[in-house]
């Protein structure tokens, strides 16, 4: 998925041209837009901001936002979590607009310095674009028309963006290409991530604590008096609710097959969408790396002869082993190694491969073929996506019909379902829980659920229902027709619950005392020795490995942090969830040198890229001081940004 998107945005000329609409997401001007001066004098509602004589329109800004989302999807491996928060949405819009500004500032700088790419230059660039060439390498006008049509670009758009690309290359992109990160910085980073911790640890749940005696009635009554809130019945309200959301409206919308086919074609032409639904070939492999070709040939012959990977490691202790599960070609750190791994049939062993770090032999364990999503496989999700897109626009149109229906139905039983409204009925407390304690099945996200609960508990009993506008344009009406006041449960009615709570607290306290004693002993002689001969010894996990390169998800984050941050010989006592943990770091281990060399090369490239971006950003900021952006229309910015991201969120299923 990431490879496909990167190929489109980086490896193809057309991708570079389109990417220049938003430039590079990492190259930003910094700060906020409060520095944009001039107000909105002389501008209509069709300009987001002005750079020199150029006015950035909502349409141009919309394209920038769409490309910025594609860029972030590439960086996050297809995850669209950033669209779920207002902060994430604002950052997308700000970055897209800042990048647009920088593109136009580069153009202005080029013009100020006498750069003026002529028609012949632009024509030469266009004719040289591989996307517009036939198999023989000649420019194909029909292919160009087809590609431009798929990307909603005209000849004028292409000419304009090629000219901006040339300006950007001359005034910004070429700077910092020879920058290299300091060796000391890479050494520190490799040392930091190249060593893992060896840990002994034990988890002791609260329930292990032993209580020597049962509580007396007096103790239970004191516990009850000190914890009254634990034994109180909350107020419950019975309510009838009718809700209309974009999702409920979407269920009433019919989508034609023609629209579905068109949506499928657009999705497959969109690099971000195609990357989400199509996947390259994946391979699981075992690798043994050695320093010389002769040893590699011996390994390959023995491996093909039936010897196991584990046996070969014992015979060649200096060989460096590595495994990769479901790896893409781009996941392999060495190009030659990748070619061999993806050319070797499943179940076979490759010939020795000469890599940057020496010689390697690859055993291909399994192959998962590349996957391409068909129209039939996406048909249902396409129908849902299109319905959600249209529902967002229709929600406001149907709100008037919803208000009229609520006004004509005092008991909320005459609201028609065909407008996209649906009813709910039941009792709940102020936390949104049913009388049994489980959450009430309220629709929507946390914000809508909270709005519904607040309305139920602020509205008077039997008050006539009225329409309330909820989050994301949703609407609902509430009728509270029953109230059961909260009450304190008498001690006699909850005596068993009080006893259970008392015993749970006593067990936790006993466990805490026991763990504290073990902790004090472990600080002196180590956790393994402190537990030797003790009943908790069977629960000890010995020689567990923790690495910053492969973070474990089978332990809580607090424990993971303690394992990686403590010094060797230290023991920590931690409370997490319903238990206590003792974590003792007993040693360190070094990661594979072959893997670390590949990571070093990759990090050197990333850090150099970051330095180049910093240099380009500084240069871009100097351009903005020369020609400051003017007349920022904050209201139009927010409106376009929210509308476009809501549409994208609907397509990605993030609403």
TrEMBL record:
InterPro entries: PPIase_dom_sf, PPIase_PpiC, PpiD_chaperone, Trigger_fact/SurA_dom_sf. The chain crosses the membrane at residues 13-36. Residues 255-380 form the PpiC domain. It is a single-pass type II membrane protein. Keywords: Cell inner membrane, Cell membrane, Chaperone, Isomerase, Membrane, Transmembrane, Transmembrane helix. GO terms for molecular function: isomerase activity. Its main location: membrane. Coiled coil: none annotated. It is found in: Cell inner membrane. Belongs to the PpiD chaperone family. This is Parvulin-like PPIase. It comes from Parasaccharibacter apium.
């Amino acid at each position: 998925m990431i490879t496909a998107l990167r190929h489109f945005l980086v490896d193809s000329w057309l991708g570079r041209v389109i990417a220049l609409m938003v430039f590079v997401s990492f190259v930003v001007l910094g700060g906020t837009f409060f520095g944009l001066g001039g107000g909105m004098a002389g501008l209509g509602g069709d300009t987001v901001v002005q750079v020199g004589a150029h006015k950035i329109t909502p349409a141009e800004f919309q394209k920038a936002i769409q490309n910025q989302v594609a860029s972030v999807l590439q960086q996050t491996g297809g995850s669209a979590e950033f669209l779920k928060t207002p902060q994430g949405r604002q950052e997308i819009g700000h970055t897209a607009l800042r990048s647009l500004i920088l593109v136009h500032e580069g153009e202005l700088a080029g013009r100020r310095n006498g750069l003026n790419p002529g028609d012949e230059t632009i024509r030469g660039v266009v004719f040289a674009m591989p996307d517009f060439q036939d198999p023989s390498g000649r420019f194909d006008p029909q292919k160009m028309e087809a590609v431009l049509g798929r990307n909603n670009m005209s000849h004028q758009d292409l000419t304009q963006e090629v000219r901006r690309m040339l300006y950007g290359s001359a005034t910004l992109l070429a700077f910092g290409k020879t920058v290299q990160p300091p060796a000391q910085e890479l050494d520190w980073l490799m040392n930091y991530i190249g060593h893992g911790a060896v840990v002994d640890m034990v988890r002791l749940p609260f329930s292990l604590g032993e209580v020597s005696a049962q509580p007396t009635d007096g103790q239970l009554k004191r516990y009850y008096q000190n914890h009254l809130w634990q034994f109180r019945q909350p107020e419950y309200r019975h309510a009838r609710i009718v809700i209309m959301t974009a999702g409920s409206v979407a269920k009433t919308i019919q989508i034609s097959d023609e629209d579905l086919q068109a949506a499928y074609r657009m999705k497959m032409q969109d690099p971000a969408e195609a990357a989400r639904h199509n996947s390259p070939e994946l391979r699981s492999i075992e690798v043994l790396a050695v320093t010389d070709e002769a040893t590699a040939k011996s390994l390959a012959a023995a491996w093909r002869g039936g010897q196991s990977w584990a046996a070969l490691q014992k015979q060649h202790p200096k060989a460096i082993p590595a495994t990769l599960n479901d790896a893409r070609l781009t996941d392999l750190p060495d190009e030659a190694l990748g070619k061999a791994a993806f050319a070797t049939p499943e179940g076979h062993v490759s010939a020795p491969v000469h890599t940057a770090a020496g010689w390697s032999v690859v055993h291909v364990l399994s192959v998962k073929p590349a996957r391409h999503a068909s129209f039939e496989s996406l048909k249902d999700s396409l129908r849902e996506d299109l319905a959600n897109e249209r529902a967002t626009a229709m929600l406001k149109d149907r709100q008037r019909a919803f208000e009229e229906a609520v006004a004509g139905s005092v008991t909320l039983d005459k609201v028609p379902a065909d407008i996209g409204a649906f009813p709910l009925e039941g009792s709940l407390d102020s936390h949104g829980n049913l009388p049994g304690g489980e959450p009430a099945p309220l629709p929507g996200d946390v914000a809508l659920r909270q709005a519904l609960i607040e309305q139920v508990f602020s509205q008077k009993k039997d008050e006539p229902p009225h329409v309330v506008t909820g989050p994301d344009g949703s609407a609902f009406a509430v009728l509270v027709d029953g109230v059961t006041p909260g009450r304190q449960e008498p001690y006699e009615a909850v005596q068993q619950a009080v006893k259970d709570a008392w015993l749970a607290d006593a067990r936790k306290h006993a466990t805490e005392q026991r763990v504290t004693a073990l902790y004090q002993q472990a600080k002196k002689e180590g956790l393994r020795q402190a537990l030797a001969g003790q009943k908790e010894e069977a629960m000890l996990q010995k020689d567990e490995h923790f690495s910053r390169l492969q973070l474990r998800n089978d332990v809580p984050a607090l424990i993971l942090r303690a394992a990686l941050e403590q010094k060797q010989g230290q023991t920590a006592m931690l409370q997490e969830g319903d238990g206590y943990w003792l974590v003792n770091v007993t040693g360190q281990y070094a990661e594979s040198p072959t893997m670390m060399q590949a990571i070093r090369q990759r990090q050197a490239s990333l850090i150099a890229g970051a330095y180049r971006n910093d240099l380009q950003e500084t240069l871009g900021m100097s351009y903005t001081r020369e020609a400051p952006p003017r007349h920022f229309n904050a209201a139009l910015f927010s409106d376009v940004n929210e509308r476009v991201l809501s549409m994208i969120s609907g397509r990605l299923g993030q609403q």
